[in-house]
Amino acid sequence: MSPMLETVEKYEDRVFDQVKHVEEPILRLTKETSDMLARFVPERPAFMADMPMLTEIIESQLKFRKRLVDEQTRFIRKMVKAMDPVMEKVDAEPKRPAKKQTEPVAKVAPRRTTRKAA
């Protein structure tokens, strides 16, 4: 793996660590708020009997998100495959020019200048 990609992954890991770090306080605050609000929220009314439950909507949208990401993943892999001729050149190791063998350069002694008497 290239050093640049290692650096990117290191920063991605740091982002996930930060997200995990703030999740617990947010969940705790949400639970406390929910416990307090539950006392004031009425039971589900009869006219909402035919409507989906909130948990059903959430599960449905999570399934949709997974399908969408899976489809995008499939598509991007096909795109990369379609771009094989270009990708082979872009991803190839760079050709390094052969070092020219140079002959040692003889050092020239500094010139002596004559001084004029004042």
Detail the topology: elements first, then pairings.
Blueprint (H helix, E strand, L loop, with lengths): L2 H36 L15 H29 L1 H7 L28
Low-confidence stretches: none
For this structure, the quaternary state is single chain
**What is the number of beta strands?**
0
Strand content: under 5%
Give the topology string: H per helix, E per strand: HHH
Quickly give the structural class: mainly alpha
Mean pLDDT: 90
Helix tally equals 3
Task: Determine the N-to-C terminus distance.
Answer: 71 Å
Percent in helix: 55-70%
| Principal-axes shape call | elongated
Describe this structure in words.
The protein has 118 residues and is mainly α. Among the domains are: 35 residues; 44 residues. It is built from 3 helices and no strands. It is elongated, with a radius of gyration of 34 Å.
Give a quick rundown of the structure.
This protein is mostly helical. 61% of the residues lie in helices and 0% in strands. The mean pLDDT is 90.
Descriptive keywords:
118 residues; 61% helix; mainly alpha; 0% strand
